[in-house]
Amino acid sequence: MPKATVVDMTGKKVGEVELSDAIFGIEPNQAVVHEAVKNHLANCRQGTQSALTRAEVSGGGIKPWRQKGTGRARQGSTRAPQWTHGGIVFAPKPRDYSYTINKKVRRLALKSALSAKAAEGNVIVVDGLNLGEIKTKAMAGFLTAVEAGKAVLVTSEVNENVVLSARNIPGVVTTTAKLLSVYDIVNAKQFIVDKAALAVIEEVFA
């Protein structure tokens, strides 16, 4: 059964906790994790890009010169793609890139990502992830104490002090136990979770 270090908000080690085998102890499925990350990035795309085709560019209605006899290549419009100010070939148009993947696939990807973090020893459990006030310096001090780089901070419920204290720290993402993202976990070096949030994760995803 995998284990994780338990620390307090000063970064001091206060014990160890056993992690659920069903969530943190499976064999990671890289193909499923890749599919989940690809899905997340596709769903993030705005799809607002747009360009004009030759049919939509203004002008070009008249044939520039006669078909034969000039010695030049035949041309039918000054708005053809090979002309300056011409239209775009296969011009991109606004579209929706989002798609869904199966619930079981999403869940397996999440367990795989968490298991990989546990196997690397990058799961840190905090005995009460909370701050008395909104203070970026205090949050930065905690992350330095636990030697965290890019990290995802997980609380059981939305904790305004934690969210606002961490939002200006580069590479740090905050989320709640029920809204875990495979992309955030894979993109981070450390998975830092509140002890109460860990219980929620094991209850919801086991």
TrEMBL record:
Does RNA-binding appear among the keywords?
A: yes
Q: Biological process GO terms, please? A: translation
Does the keyword rRNA-binding belong to this entry?
yes
- Cited Pfam families: Ribosomal_L4
Report the superkingdom from the record. Bacteria
Q: InterPro entries given for it?
A: Ribosomal_uL4, Ribosomal_uL4-like, Ribosomal_uL4_dom_sf
Sorted UniProt keywords: Ribonucleoprotein, Ribosomal protein, RNA-binding, rRNA-binding
A GO CC term assigned to this protein in UniProt: ribonucleoprotein complex
Q: Which Gene3D superfamilies match?
A: 3.40.1370.10
Which stretches does the entry tag as region Disordered?
60-80
Gene Ontology terms, MF aspect: rRNA binding; structural constituent of ribosome
Assembly and partners are described as: Part of the 50S ribosomal subunit.
Function (record text): Forms part of the polypeptide exit tunnel.
- Family the UniProt entry places it in: Belongs to the universal ribosomal protein uL4 family.
What is the protein's name according to its record? Large ribosomal subunit protein uL4
The gene name on file is rplD
